[in-house]
Amino acid sequence: MESLKNNQLVKVIYDDKIVKAFLLATLAFAGIAFLVGVLIALQLAYWPLNMNLEWLTYGRMRPLHTNAAIFAFAGNAIFAGIYYSTQRLCKTRLFNDTLSWIHFWGWQAIILAAAISLPLGYSQSKEYAELEWPIDIAIAVIWVIFGVNFFGTLIRRREKHIYVALWFYISTIITVAMLHIVNSIEYPVSFMKSYPVWAGVQDAMIQWWYGHNAVAFFLTTPFLGLMYYFVPKAVNRPVYSYRLSIVHFWALIFLYIWAGPHHLLYTALPDWAQTFGMVFSVMLWAPSWGGMINGLLTLRGVWHLLRTDPIIKFFVTALTFYGMSTFEGPLLSIKSVSHIAHYTDWIVGHVHGGTLGWNGFMVFGMIYFLIPKLWGRQMYSKSMMVSHFWIGFAGILLYYVSMAAAGITQGLMWRAMDANGNLLYPDFVETVLKIVPLYWVRALGGGLYLIGFFIMIYNVYKTIRMAPAVQADTEVMVPVSALDAHPEASTGHRRLEGLVPTFSVLAFLAVFVGSVLEIYPSLNLKQYIKNETPVEPYSPLELAGRDIYIREGCYTCHSQMIRQVADDVLRFGKPSTISESMYDRPFQWGSKRTGPDLARVGKKYPNLWHYKHMIDPRSVTPKSIMPNYPWLADHPTDFVSLRKKVAVMRSLGVPYDDNTLAQADVMAENEAKVIAKDLADQGITQSGLDKKEIVALIAYMQALGQKEKKKGDDDGKNVAGSL
Amino acid sequence: MSNEMDKEIVGHDYDGIKEYDNPLPGWWLLTFYGTIIFAFIYVAHYESGSGNSLKKDLEIALAQIETLKSSVGPIKLDSEEVLLEKAKDPKLLAVGAEQFQGKCASCHGNELQGLIGPNLTDNFWIHGKGTLTDVITTIRTGVADKGMPPWEGILKNEEIQALASFIHSKYGSQPANPKEPQGQKIE
Lengths: 723, 187
Prior knowledge:
The complex is a heterodimer. By secondary structure, chain A is mostly helical.
């Protein structure tokens, strides 16, 4: 009976067109992501490249780079690889062609919306989650469509058990949906402006739960899935260890979800959450290496291919960078290492070891593998593939080494103290200027990587040009149903591999449990602030200024979180508290200090200093590398929307009184007149200055660190006894 | 070609991909167990209270720095006469000029003519009477209300003295575009 069934074959036509579309989109958006990356690298080395244009300043370009690299380049590549491999692993065509194409065009429309809205300054200023609420909704919808199409394909599979690659795809789809939706819960103020429902430490906790797991479940698990398909296919060897696959898969997804707080070490986040973030990161080391081992040991017996086959060069290097990054990650998560590395370029180097090395080279290898299969022609030039490899590899090495050196140098300079207990480099800009030469090296590294990519584009272009004119989708003959093709009784994990719904629920629970246990306590903010000094909410003008700070992406270079370490306290004042950011939507603690921390910058400088500093930072801080912001003195402040903004804030729990609610715009205009008068008294004679954004931003800057209800210690510099 | 222990698992064939039944590498498993044991010990140490909280660690570090600072003892300033004598040293003036351009010029102007902060070349003074001792005190403590930061701890004592000497050397230099006089006229 069984064998009879197995002999009946059916013709299946795989959907190769959708894979081709996603592949070409990958190449197009890789170009944009890499170009913008090189631009912002050069802007850090040479500030005039900000060009005094608001649309091209670093603060707006950096989110464009990260979003393009993660969601456009890696995103499209994941979809291409998943759609190609899933059809073949399930021996069936994709669930629904219409859903496939809605997925494709929807995703490209989202990317286009991002590419337009980010340079225009529509940003939530939450890392890798900058896109505003209408785009957030579109992402959720398209992701669910992708999920339906994927799970529909699994249901229709003609293979009883699901292969390890599919396990990783399942966990990716489930977890990304959860992360994106929870982190994006926001209250719209207008079309393209919203405030998150999460505030301060909650927002920080949830954002880094999201942010870290964007790395985990967008740049790691799907790529491990791709690796498990494409590496054994490319070398035609069995996977090293099935048991290792099982153990490292479950360990990885269960442990990863906890690791987010390692981005917040020494901050105001409660100690226990930091401790958990650290130890779970340390425990991730072995499960991560499980993937590398299984990949690399699959090559046993065919290592000679590393010399002869450029695709294998890319895959092996990618796996090696994966191993390096996942060793460095746990290392950086150790509190005392984080003390040096946090806020520095070491983190930037670490991330690019993963993205350029692991993600980039996996994708390049996959594309070189797929193009001949899909277009029916050998790659135009093998030597160009080899050149791409070596130039790109040299680029990654320059990038990584320069950024690690820059980060460690700066981290050590920040904490250096003389024998009298004074900071050795009290001038922040001095520590920046020291590493500017390394910024040039980094830009060179990025430039090489880009050149390698251009070689690939040319190679792909020539290949496709010479491909047969008539392109047909792959046809295969497969058994009608293989669901009962394996008569052996399956037990344990093997049985689970035949039960997709159960498997998916368990994968969800693995990521859900850690999420709830870690995030739930922060939802009750009050328990953490009951012993702290109460704070005032921002005045309407300060709120308007804050939204300008958010629009310009100041968080890409400035933190607002003085850590509980002595050198931070000596440099910037007493450590930031939870209550100080309790009304901050979004939180702006930041993750990088290209410029100094701003948590206590309020009242440190006169208004005129800030005015001059925004127009031309070098007029008050010689050699500063910050861009000019001349348009802030031209653009009118948006007073009209303030009542709506205050109303939204109040409905989210910020204690604004009825008067503020009714008069927010008038109050802001009056506040602005006071600051404008002060500036006028000191010689800034611009007419209508009180209506300009620069005044609102100055109001916000002067409020930073000044909102605690007074007991008379607003001088944060005076550290002893003020803790 | 292949290892003795490699054994393909029957029935595992996905689009031609097969799987070996190899055991978990021992060193890998030991690493994994090691990190788990470390995690338990670390959490137990810090959550049971036997390890210091971050706040406690910071207090200890700051107390050590306070000890360092107080061990230096109070700064003994030379008398005005001695300071004036030392202020003639061209090397000291060169150090002061360099510090001024880097730290002070953004608010007091390149020519000390006054900008955000007051003119330092005229004979009107807001804090003290313009003696070297007065200027050194103002540089050290800053003027928080007006946004002038305290430079003690950022600049070394010799640098502050050099700065004051440089400023002193510019009295009556009559720069172009001076800021209007502020404070008391000192004859």
